[in-house]
Amino acid sequence: MATSAEIDEFMQGPLVIWLKSCLDNPEKLQSFEDLSDGTLIHQVFLLIDPEPVHLGVVPCLRNSSVRVRNMSCIVKNIKVLYEEELCQLIVALPDCTRLGQKPDSKEGLEDMRLLLLLLLGCAVQCPNKHTFIEKIKALPVECQHTLVHCIQQVTETQEIVLSPGNSENAELLTPNLLLKHIKRLLKERDYYFQLWLSSFEEKRSSITAHMSNVTHPADSQCQHLAGELADWKTKLRKMRQELEEKSEALVEAKEELERSNVIITKYKAEIQELKQEARVGKAYRDEVDALRDKAERCDRLESEVIKYREKLGDMDYYKSRIEELRQDNRVLEETKEMVEEQLIKIKKRADYAVQLESDLIQLQRTIAEISLERDSAQEKLQDLLEENTQLKLSNKSSQHVDNNNSNNDDSFIQNNIGSSDNSLSDQLSSSAQTRILKLELENKKLLSTVETLQDTAFHRNNEKILELEKEKKKLSLMVENLEDGKRKYSQQISELETSLKETQSQLKRIQESYQMVQEQLELRCDDAEFSNKEKLRLKEKITELTNEIYNLKQTVENTNEISELKAKICNMEKEISKLKRTVEESNSNVDRLTAENESLEKQTEQLLKQLEDVNDLLIKLSDVEKDAQELQKQHKIDSVTITNLENDLVSEKLKTQQLRDSFDALGLTIDNVTDPDKVLERIASNPEVLKAVRERLAQEQSNCCFDQGPSFNNAKLQVNIITLQSQISSLTSQHTALQLANSQLAAEKDEALKELSKVLSAHQQLLEDQKVLQTLHEQLNVEYDSLSKEREMLKVNLRDTRTEKRNQHDKYLQTKAALATLEAEKENLLKDSQTLVNLRTEHSKLRYDFRSLFQASEKLQSDYRNLQEEYRRVHSEASKMKLVNAELQGELATNYEKIQLSELEMSKLNNRCDMLHHTNTCLEDDRKSLMDQVSLLFSQYHELLTHALEDKEYYHSEEKVYVDKLNDIRRQKEKLEEKIMESYKKSESCSSKKKGFGASIVRRVKKAGSELINKSRKSAHEESVDRRATDSDTSTEDGQPKQVVREMDDNLSCLSIPGTRKTLYLSGNESVDAEDTSTNISINGRDEYCKSPSSDNMRSSAPYPADTRPPLLVYNRLTAKVGGKSSVSASPTPSHQSNKDSSSQSAENVKNSVWYEYGCV
User: Fold this and answer.
1) CA 108, CA 1142: separation in Å to the nearest integer?
2) Helix and strand numbers, DSSP H then E, in the chain
3) Which tens digits make up the pLDDT trace of 1042-1078?
4) Topology given in CATH for the domain delimited by 4-172
5) How many whole angstroms separate alpha carbon 510 and alpha carbon 684?
6) Contact, 107 vs 113, CB < 8 A?
7) CB burial of residue 398 (10 Å; 0-12, 13-18, 19+)
8) Which residues form the signal peptide (predicted)?
9) Burial readout 384-393 (b: 16 or more C-beta within 10 A, e: otherwise)
């Protein structure tokens, strides 16, 4: 059995996919059972060959025998198609029994694949191949490639199908391929031969078993069966006769039914004809009335014709009016074309105006951006100038601080350490001086760059503003011109619309008048046509009457013939009655004979069955005899071999006796022969032997060069003896077995001969009975054939006579009816002849009137056609004008809509601008209030710090209290910042709902604000160390002036998180080396600090002296000088600029001054 995976793989293969594509409903093929049923494959084959030779493919319903029948039918049809139509031989056919009984097996799958391959080959080579190729092309590419390979396998390789006609394929028939085919055929032959043998043996065993149980019937039984057979045959004949009689009666009844139906149809037709004649009579009366009415109508028409002739003059006036309207239409078309051209120009100008408006908006945006940039640049310049002054002050203060620090350090070192640390103060002072020099140089460079940037920005801004103003003026002029043109075009369009409406009203009037004329003409044409039809009807009636007169004459002749036929019919009826009697007698005889024949046929069938059984027995006997003959032949061969072996034994015995005599002569015994050395010594000691040996050696040397010794021959003989003995033993055993088999066969043969003699005797008796029966049967058949022929002849004569009789009777009735109708028609004709004379006179009058009316109608029709053509032209021109007008109106509507949309957008933008302005003012107020709060907080914080510095002894005890207060202040500040952020988010959500020009303005305002904040955040390079506080934080900043803006953006990333704080506590006596205080900034969360690694070292330094100046506070990038000098720590360089030297800057202290800058997050 094949696995489910193999079956699924086969079902998803290209052959099954192709088969699905060929089906009307591919959903029918869902499983392998549907495919193995055979009905779907047969459907596809019917598409290839609609008229197959073998039919009978039926749904199997899981019945293996039906499935086998279906598959054999399909395979036979495919074979016939290949052999007859394609002239090809199928080498490998699928096994139908395997496909029917075991389709799920691996061999069954292979057979199914072969069947589908052969089907595909048929489809590709059949007359309808184009449809199948198109279906293959519709499949996926991979499937197509595999199907092409399959087709080549069938049509080109010559492995499945041989095509002997093609010369190209003949080359492919290599000897190896032919050898393969021959080997396969031989295997199949052996396989089927073995199958046949096994089935034959099974049959044979079953027949022998059956024959043993069967008892041979006696002679009396045979005779009894023969009698029964004769009886059955007679009954069968009787039944057949009855069947024939009933079938004849049925045929006669059918014929009578048909005749009655024919008579009924005739009567119906006659009734209809009579009704039609009645209708025709009524119609004639109506026509007479109608003709009278027409005569009156003709008089009226004449009066109307006179009126219409008068109206023809009016028609000329209408024609001239139509020509004038055409000219007006042409003028309108020309104006329309002019208007269209103008409209196109207006459209182009309008498009250009829209583009200019968009350009204007863009330019306005750029102006706003440039103005913002200019303001930001000015603010940057101011900030740089302020920073410059601060840097100068910080330089001076740092120098002062360095001097103080050096003095303090000297005194401290002298008191505590000694002269060993003097070098540190010298290094610090020298490094501070070098930094001051570098910073001064950089300051000068920055000032020069700022001045150049200011000049260039000022010039550029002025030039751009001038250009933009010029463009704005141009655009305003363009817009005014476009508006003027638009007004003019709208006036022209309104004028054209009025003219179009007037033309449409005129056209409607013309159409109404035209319709009136058309209706009148149609009425006249209808009257003329009606008169023509009446004229034709009268002519047809005259021809009909002449034909009826002719028919009446013929009917009179037919009546004479009918009387003669009646006499003949009476004679024929008498003859028919006689023939009926004879037929009845013959039928009774035929019944008897058929009964006898049926009984004989049954007997013969029984005898034939017995003969078949006897023949089977004879075949078995012949097989047994053949086996016996083969055994006899084998026995003879064995006996011959045995005699040959006996002769060989005798000869060997003689040889052995000779050897014994020769040994005795030598004085040796066979027992002593075992030691060859002793034997040789004895032989050598014997002189007689030596002499004989020498003589023999001399003879042999003379005869032959090489000869073997007696020992070698002896050994050979011994080996031969042993082999012969073994052969003899095997032969004896075989002989005994053969004897036993022969005895059994002889017994079986005797039994078979006895049975054969019995069967032969029974067979001879049966043959004699058969001969007797055959003679009887032949005689009966001859008699039956003669009687059946006579009966058929009589039947034919009867039918002919009956048909003749009926035909003549029908003719007689027809002639009677025709005579009656003729008499009635004669009377009608006399009346009609009188009416005809009157009608002719009226007809001649109507002809004259009709001609005059026809001429007038032709004139009217020609005029009407001309008017129609003119109307069509006018109508087409009017429709064109309507279309153009509709297009213009649509364009106008679109333009109005665009204007309205632009106005709406403008109003929306204005509202947004107002909203943004309002939110901006609110934010600024909040910012100012927050700044005030922050300044208050800083003042409080500074006071706390001063108290903490003064009260150094209580610092450690009160440190926790101050930290808590600081945390509270931070929380309050964070809450304030969160409120600002919420208000800012609200403003952003309002603006995001209405994105557009307003949103872009808000973004620009935000950018300008952030830039201003960034500028305000730019401070000198700071370096701070917290000695007393628990957390020491440092802020980093690069000292190079060229990368100030970029570094500020990088450093602000730490401040962008709400709640981050960086605080430095600096006194006037502190100076920190930049190399020692370089820090790595890390932002890990909301309340993380930027810690410096050198904070621990700075804590261990000396405390503040009493006479020092007030410290400078750095809080969240916010510097504050509180009542004295402040030293700003230089921020360390970033990681990517670590190799550059960092310099510290000092600023001079302004007494009791607080300078701060706060940046919103």
Assistant:
1) 90
2) 20, 5
3) 343 344 444 433 333 333 333 333 333 333 333 333 3
4) Actin-binding Protein, T-fimbrin; domain 1 (1.10.418)
5) 167
6) no
7) buried
8) none
9) beebeebbbb
